[in-house]
């Protein structure tokens, strides 16, 4: 479960902006989670208290959710949330200054489990998927936004999320189509070939899922082993040694002196890329900053993990670590995914109006 903090002003036609964690792919392990704002047991400020507003079974949204007024959810990182479905007025402030409070359905979680080393200090999770009960789909059906959502997650923490297409850059966006049979309700694209240091590899046919709800990036066992071999071979003769005593992640290295930041170690590593075979010149780059972390022990670790070992089967997931410092756009109307290098610490100007989460 991704814990990047975004602040939604209480108050958002214009495109929507509480301290919550955004998760465009929290439906990776179960589509029941795609649409909900999950209010955690220990929010930053106040607990949300339902007030005779449980979602009624005859409500079309309840029918779409396939569950009467409850939301058991399992996340890609094996965290989970159990709660109830409620419907309430959701105050939203738009970039044109207007205030609206549409009646939206969302989940109120009362039993959260985390498997990471740190419990997210957020008040909830906004599921940004494209299912019928997602916040995005509800806003779109109400005519408040286009069925487009995007996020820009800063490597320094923070960033912003936007609903609608007004903040999508007019230039510099690389687009690739979502398959017609895109994996359930997941944001996915492919097939793609793995590229290492500008050179093609034998790893092909990768279908990728974009999921900022996963802290790390996961490849299936075959692709993962190939990446590990490529990286290890390239490190031969460089002043890095295996740091097997560091259990932060499966593969870590130590230098002559402790690293403070990823930038201190990035020059020892080569960039990766994904070359999408069904689109010309579509090759998003995975620089070392997007697949490495530095631990509290001063070691540098590989932030790409073996998805098969954690129960993801043959799925390949582009997680939070790889999505930082770039704008990701999920255009459900035109069935395409786009990305562009932008400064995620600065909110871009809206061409017209937008709903912003920051």
From TrEMBL:
Lineage: superkingdom: Eukaryota
Domain Peptidase A1: 1-340
Family matches, as Pfam families: TAXi_C, TAXi_N
An example Gene Ontology molecular-function term: aspartic-type endopeptidase activity
A Gene Ontology biological process term: proteolysis
PROSITE patterns referenced in this protein's UniProt entry, alphabetically: PEPTIDASE_A1 (PS51767)
UniProt record similarity statement: Belongs to the peptidase A1 family.
Name under which the protein is recorded: Peptidase A1 domain-containing protein
Species assigned in the record: Prunus persica
